[in-house]
Amino acid sequence: MANKYSLNAVYFCTGCGIIEIPPSITARWDAERFGIIPVATPRQGNLFMITGYVSLKTLRAIIRTYEQMPDPKYTVGFGSCPINGGMYWDSYNTIKHLDKYIPVDGWIAGCMPRPEAVFIGVTHLWTLIDKDMANGYIRYREHYDQYRGNQEKLFGKLDWPPLYATATAQKEMAA
Amino acid sequence: MVTKIVQLVLLPVLGFVIGIFFLGLYRKIMARIQWRYGPPLLQPVIDIIRLLFQRGVSHGIIFDFGLVLSLAGALTITLFLPFAQWCPLKGSGGLLVILYLMLLMPLGMELSGGSAANPNSSIGISRKFILALGYEVPLLLILLSVMTHYKTISLFEVVLSQQHSAWALLSWPLALPGIAYVLILPAVLGVRPFDITTAPQEISYGPMVEYGGKYLAFAHIHHALSLFIGISLFVNLFLGGAANPVVFFVKMFVVFTAGVCVNAVFPRLRIEQAVSYLWKWPTAVALLGLIIVSLVK
After folding, report:
1. Nearest residue on chain B to A5, alpha-carbon basis
2. Which of A8, A36, A41 is most worth mutating to test chain B (most B CB atoms within 10 A of its CB)?
3. Residue pair B22/B256 in contact by the 8 Å Cβ criterion
């Protein structure tokens, strides 16, 4: 209940999308009516919004930011590009499917979506939280092996320790 | 005896409730000044409940201990500040104890933020100490002139003598220290022209950068209490306290609203601008006030 009405958002504006966020949090559309305020550090947030295309370099920062946020946390992809690559569908260094690497609870489609779409997205997220369907952070814990595997397939060896004990690490511990 | 125990329990709770109410009102008034609708009045309560249920990350014993220290300091000061006629520890120490305990609040916060080893929090800590150096000089001069004029260190007696005569802010020898206190009040409260310590756009909340979950909830509670303490001290020293709690609350409310209006229209100063302001005008006015007070006596 309190999670629902107090969404502190960490905006990860990769390139586009930064234009749509200021009108939605300032006087024109005022997201603070719904208890949504932007915060400056991932430790304080519980809503992670990724706006715009995700390149290989930004994906590293996105994963690290996501892992620093405290549970429960919700992720929303904003715009077409995180969903399926959008207009960068044939780019060599853009991530086509963000939800292979971190769990995403909802998408706001469009290129770019209008600020109204952000609020429709928020009301949908409220419904999902009520029905316990916004469970990305639980999925991340349960399927951490697969997510970490996908991340390692992309980057080779990762230079940060795993957030949860992976199956391979547990096997090494047992051996 | 029973009333004293009741007051000992009641005053920290009252300080917390009023502080939280002010935090909610702060967001609402700021929103209306900026032509927005604003969050519900209870938004800080919702935030604190959410944060208490979120999983926080600790960064060691000092990280936990510093937060507890500053919270304990804040809760203790509420017992020394008269809220209308309620002041359970009025016989012990008065203004001197308040001065010492007021140092404990930022100190605990800086200990805790410093052990997180984040560069942003280090910058915030150094800014906080420089700012404190800036406003402690005029604050000490102001308190010295109040104590000299009323010939007591007890805050409760200061309030009583003001109720027999006039408010200190409006009476002749203490008007100058009163004006100096008005000039440094935003720095004591840490609101907008002086929110250098926790500037979210520059250094991501400064010392609070690594707080999450219940740590941030306690930091919010501490913020609410420090708001209550800053305003309550001003009302007691210069606006004559009050005979009943409702009048006291109304006085606090007026001071708070004026502070929010200042907060809404001023941009943030840089740290050296803040210190040069604090050591120039408020200090000069307070020093002049102290000289006049000691001569008039």
Report:
1. B46
2. A41
3. yes
The residues near B218 (Cβ < 8 Å, ≥ 6 apart) are: B67, B68, B71
Give the pair of three-digit tokens for residue A106: 């909802």
Are A115 and A24 contacting, i.e. CB atoms less than 8 angstroms apart? Answer: yes
Q: Which of A8, A30, A43 sits opposite B57 (nearest CB)?
A: A43
Structure tokens at B36: 């927005």
- What residues form DSSP beta bridges with B168? none
User: For helices B119-150 and B175-189, what crossing angle results, to 10°?
Assistant: 160
CA distance linking residue A148 with residue A153, whole number of Å = 8
SS (H, E, C) B183-241: HHHHHHHCCHHHCCCCCHHHHCCHHHCCCCCHHHHHHHHHHHHHHHHHHHHHHHHHCCC
Q: Please name the residue of chain A whose CA is at the shortest distance from the CA of residue B56.
A: A70
Query: Does B38 contact A33 at a Cβ distance shorter than 8 Å?
Result: yes
Answer whether A10's CB lies under 8 Å from A61's CB: no
pLDDT at A139 over 80: yes
CATH 3.40.50.10490 fits A2-174, yes or no: no
CB contact under 8 A, A27 and B36: yes
Minimal-distance CA residue of chain B relative to A3: B50
CB B124 within 8 A of CB B206: yes
Min distance A115 CA to chain B CA atoms (Å): 16
Chain A positions in Cβ-Cβ contact with residue B213 (cut-off 8 Å): 70
What does the alpha-carbon distance between residue A42 and residue A69 come to, in Å, rounded to a whole number?
A: 5
Torsion from C-alpha of B108, B112, B115, B119, nearest 10 degrees: -100
Instruction: For residues A134-153, give the mean pLDDT.
Output: 87
A39, A40, A46 member nearest B54 (Cβ): A46
* pLDDT, averaged in runs of 10, over chain B (297 residues): 82 89 90 88 90 84 88 88 79 82 85 85 89 89 87 81 76 84 87 84 84 88 90 87 84 90 87 90 90 83
- The Cβ of residue B261 has, within 10 Å, a number of other Cβ atoms equal to 13
Q: What is the pLDDT of residues A93-112, one digit of tens each?
A: 888 888 888 899 889 888 88
Residue A1 scores a pLDDT above 80: no
Q: In this predicted structure, what is the pLDDT of residue A75?
A: 92
Q: How much is the pTM?
A: 0.89
Question: Do the Cβ atoms of A35 and B39 come within 8 Å?
Answer: yes
